[in-house]
Amino acid sequence: MTTYKKILTIQDISCVGQCSLTVALPILSACGLETCILPSAVLSTHTAGFSGYTFRDLTEDMPAIKNHWVKENIQFAAVYTGYLGSTKQIDYVVDIYKDTAKENGGLLIVDPAMADNGKLYPGFDEAFVEAMKELCGKADYVIPNLTEACFLTGVEYKTSYDRAYIDEILEKLSALGCKNVIFTGVSYQEGKTGIVVYENGQYSYYEHDFLPNSCHGTGDIYASAFVGALVRGKSAYDAAKIAADYTVECIKATAEVKNHWYGAAFEPVLGKLIGML
Predict the structure, then answer these.
(1) DSSP assignment, residue 48?
(2) Cα 11 from Cα 27, distance rounded (Å)
(3) How far from 259 is each of 138, 161, 256, 277, CA to CA, in Å?
(4) How distant, in Å, are the alpha carbons of 37, 100, 135, 158 from that of 94?
(5) How far is CA 226 from CA 98, 113, 136, 207, 247, in A?
(6) Which pTM value belongs to this model?
(7) How sure is the predictor about 2, in pLDDT bands with cuts at 50, 70 and 90?
(8) Which DSSP symbol is given to 272?
(9) Which of 148-157, 176-185, 210-219 has the lowest mean pLDDT?
């Protein structure tokens, strides 16, 4: 058996709707990792397209959970963060990583899930962006989409751009302290999209077809598959490619399901992810 690693993922859990922890837990587990979770909040459904959902904030539970782990000497090979609901949660994440992973060489991997299509998600403001900059600056890997990368760097968001535009963003992310960047949704030509892997100052790009039927939660699927493959020992480029190929398979599978508007059908193709590893 390959080394059996323990990973912690910190993000919210929507009881219905394929995103955040309901995506991260099964995907990371399928990658062969012992997957531990810290829910930042519990919602009855996610917030895109549903109305009247319930929400329970678990921010104040996070320090006591961390203290118990420290008492039990629980350590993680990596801490992976997704959607975080407040600047206070970001502060707690820093403490959790420092006390349960950093001292033993554990990775910090941050998906700065806060924006898309040129706009911040509802409830986020510039103070949150500044706190996220600090967290990303401490990370070993950050996984932003184009909108998030623009908010992190102050570069104007554009839908049409060239390599020089992406290089400017990458340079500014590096100036923040981001060690390695997995830049998703980078498209240089119509009908294509891809992933930029910027590792130790070296640029590489994996391109694939752009599928028009977008699905809620594909960013979480991508980030989770990338993290799973990386912690399993794949190179950053190979992990980025595996995650992209798997996400494409999820989108294709979703297109075959009638009225599945609230998420991506990632479960039927989990076997393909396992095969890729």
Answers:
(1) S
(2) 14
(3) 41, 34, 9, 31
(4) 16, 10, 7, 31
(5) 22, 15, 17, 16, 10
(6) 0.95
(7) low
(8) H
(9) 210-219
